[in-house]
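Encode chain A's predicted structure.
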Amino acid sequence: MTVNIEKIQNAILSDEFKGDQETGLLKAFGVILAINSVDYLVNRELEYIKVFPKATHMVENSLVDAAQWCCNATFGGIMESQQWKDLIEPMVE
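Encoded structure for chain A:
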């Protein structure tokens, strides 16, 4: 069986996956998602790089490493969630 993208999109767009109106957080798929300003996050990274002008390459590599760890942890949480087991896992061969 192939993964049914439309089924996944419809499920995620359903009322079950709405965020909390007071906190702005969405708890689903074993993770807590938040809407943050991309400009704020990018500016923090640029300021971090500026602090170490003689080690820019090392600092950039540390940010890439942190992003990779974050992605791995997030996707690991998603794959362990009940939503994944109920919705997506049955479609994966």
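The longest helix spans residues 56-80.
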